[in-house]
What does this fold into?
Amino acid sequence: MRIGIMCSGNGTNFENIVKQCPDHEVVLMIHNTKKCGAIERAERLGIHHCRIKHKDVDNAINLFKVWKVDLIVLAGYMRILSPKMIEAFPNKIINIHPSLLPKYKGIDAIQQALDSGDKTTGCTVHYVNEELDSGEIIDQSTVMICPDDTIETLTQRVQQAEHRLLPLVINSYE
It folds into this structure.
């Protein structure tokens, strides 16, 4: 399977996909920020990458089609995709989100879980649709919230769960 990845941040999920999904080929990484940490990772791993502003949907669609991607993974991509992008790749775009959806959609999900007094949180891989973090859930992983957790400690454990879950989903994708 040929995979395209979209990132906005450090790129830890991006690198993890490359390493944990050896039967698939990550062919392109698109990022939307100038100082995206995933750039350095892509260069080190020999993965083609480019910056495309999130509103330049046609360019992103064309690139993914030229690279003949079978699956697009949003791995820390901090923008809502346009309906045009979703229509161009029906049921071919998945996202990893740091909560047990449908709880805590959008940003600051881990902080929301801490603030709510929840006993658990986790991460969800879901199909992307036009509504924020509302697509069909593919799989989830639960993370316990400890009484002494801080945003940093809980974020680290949720990211570890993401690093386990996302490759499992990708490797079982048909």
Observations:
- The mean pLDDT is 96.
- Strands lie at 2-7, 25-31, 49-51, 71-74, 93-97, 120-127, 137-144.
- Residues 121 and 167 are 19 Å apart (CA to CA).
